[in-house]
Amino acid sequence: xxxxxxxxxxxxxxxxxxxxxxxxxxxxxxxxxxxxxxxxxxxxxxxxxxxxxxxxxxxxxxxxxxxxxxxxxxxxxxxxxxxxxxxxxxxxxxxxxxxxxxxxxxxxxxxxxxxxxxxxxxxxxxxxxxxxxxxxxxxxxxxxxxxxxxxxxxxxxxxxxxxxxxxxxxxxxxxxxxxxxxxxxxxxxxxxxxxxxxxxxxxxxxxxxxxxxxxxxxxxxxxxxxxxxxxxxxxxxxxxxxxxxxxxxxxxxxxxxxxxxxxxxxxxxxxxxxxxxxxxxxxxxxxxxxxxxxxxxxxxxxx
Length: 303
Known about the structure:
The chain has 303 residues and is an alpha/beta fold. The protein has helices at residues 45-51, 58-63, 72-84, 108-122, 146-157, 174-181, 211-222, 257-276, 280-283, 287-302, and strands at residues 91-96, 126-129, 160-168, 171-172, 197-203, 226-227, 232-234.
């Protein structure tokens, strides 16, 4: 009896991307014009004032470029997840790495962080942006300073982080690194970053570089986070945003492949967070920590 041998389909020399081998995708009904954002009537005024400076008026938000994005697949995923979790929205902390003001030497990392926040907000996330002004330089003394405690509390609250830093002298800025240095790997049983999903972006003053996103990726690994495969790097950032008084609220990122890449990053970030979030407790269950607990228990018994 002849054995069954799998039939090998010869490659088509014209199919350079091997498209014939791709898996079929589900057809999703369009969600054009829809948003899963928190309603303006449900805003907590205190949280809005402290952490959502990116919000636009309702009319602008309904008609800007983000409202027109085709995000049907991820929006359906979010909608299904919210139904399963009784409306438990993905909690996102966004950090940026500059304290420049818009009316002087603009903080383009902040402007890019705002655009990322608006995309995530439309996708139903509870987004909060930390303002680094007033955060003390890292030391081993002032752990109870209000800004330090605020940052740590936000990280503990979050399901994922989005990091946006300028590139200065070929790497991330001190303003950004100071924020990460202020977040401990662990405080007792609390793990402020373990298992969180992590997205990264940078803005460049000149030609496109990837030094900063590469450094952010390494930082995320050290903080035991899961960094998405995609990343965003904006070259010549001073040319990539509209004027303050332009349409759609001003200071908006202009149409380009750079803007499209930011959208793809936020889309991937949300998808991975939904997949990972039900299993976050598994990522905090580490062999080394279990061993330490057993050794500690054994020492306690001997005393």
